[in-house]
Structures are given as C-alpha cells and as structure tokens.
Amino acid sequence: MKFSELNLTIDQSVTEVTFNSQTFNVYNYLPTRDKANLIEITLQESYEPEGWYNPIKLDWFFYANIVMVYTDIEFDIEDETDLSEFYDKVKTSGLLAEVIKAIPKTEYNELFKMMEDMLTARKEVESSIVNKLINFLRTAPEEMQKLNELVKDFDKEKYQEVMRFAQAANGGREIS
Questions:
Q1: Which parts of the chain have pLDDT scores under 50?
Q2: Residue 34: exposure state from Cβ atoms within 10 A (0-12, 13-18, ≥19)
Q3: Judging by beta carbons within 10 Å of its beta carbon (0-12, 13-18, 19+), is residue 149 exposed, middle or buried?
Q4: Residue of 111, 122, 113 whose CA lies nearest to 47
Q5: Which three-class secondary structure state does DSSP give residue 172?
Q6: How much is the pLDDT for 164?
C-alpha cells in the first residue's frame, strides 16, 4: 500500500460564529506551517532591541495574530497598522474570547504549547555563550570601525602632556 492510497486530507472544517450580528468562520485546524509563521511573527515583533522578549507585546501579538489567522474575517491594512489598538479592540469587545472559544481546545492548547516551547528555546539560545560570541563577531567590524575613527584623531603629544600632568598630580608617582 502507498501512503497516497490512504486518501488523507488536512482538516479544513470551520466553526461558524456570530458576533455583533455578523457571521464569520473560525478554522478548527491551522496547518503547522501557518502556526509556525504565527509564532515566528509574534516572537519577532515582541523582541526588544535590548535583547529580551516583552511579555505585554508577546500577549498582544499572539492574540491579535490568532484573530487574524484563525478567522476568515477580511482585514484592511489600516486594521493591522497598530496591533496594540487592534488587540485592545478585539479583547475588550469580546471578539477575541469568541474566536478562542470556537477553536477546539486541543488545537488551541497545541498552539499555545508551541509558542511556549519556541520562546523557551529562543531564550536558551540567546543566553548561551556561543550566541554571545556570534553576536560579538557579527558586530566586531562595526565596533572596530568606530575604534579606528577614534584612533585616527589620536594626538600622542597631547596624551603625553596629560600623562605628565597626571603623574605630577599624583605626587610624581607612575600612573599605571
């Protein structure tokens, strides 16, 4: 028997939801690639330049993306411009709760666990010594350029004058 003879398909069933007199569909299953993309976007958008994941942004990006990806609601670019405002609207209106309620528990729990696992894995990698070394090597050329600019204007005579002054101020003892 061949795998193709099993006639397997991906679940494309939906749950119909009515909210504020409007009807839309919530997908009962999201393909793994789409789940991975939802999680990746959430992690990228919630990562702060200082090197940490902002838990508030993790929350709003995760849930805003669930509403966008798990429903057949059409969104305009204006809806997606400020995701914190979008999140506040879907949360406070009750729409988010309705969408989450329509997603089967096993599907939602799997997505949430994948999110937690990816976040943990990222944190472990980012805190490792190897990653620190990689980041250092990645930024070293830029830092060396900055150092080169400083050294280029370095005046040895002025440095020696400053050192003589410091030595005199130190009672004539050597400055190390």
A1: none
A2: middle
A3: exposed
A4: 122
A5: coil
A6: 75
DSSP class of residue 174? P
The string of DSSP letters for 157-170 reads HHHHHHHHHHHHHT
The answer for residues whose C-beta is within 8 angstroms of residue 127's C-beta and 6 or more apart is: none
Distance separating alpha carbons of residues 47 and 125, to the nearest angstrom: 14
What's the pLDDT at 137?
A: 79
Residue 31 is predicted with a pLDDT of 95
In sequence order, what are the beta bridge partners of 17?
Answer: 24
CB 110 within 8 Å of CB 82: no
- The number of C-alpha atoms within 13 Å of 18 and in the hemisphere containing its C-beta is 1
Question: CA 165 to CA 172: how far, in whole Å?
Answer: 9
Q: CA–CA separation, 167 vs 176, rounded Å?
A: 10
Predicted local confidence at residue 176, as pLDDT: 66
- Name the residue among 86, 79, 77, 71 with its Cα closest to residue 18: 71
Residue 92 near residue 67 (C-beta atoms within 8 A): no
Q: Whole-angstrom Cα distance, residue 9 to residue 68?
A: 24
Cα–Cα distance for residue pair 61/96, rounded to 1 Å: 12
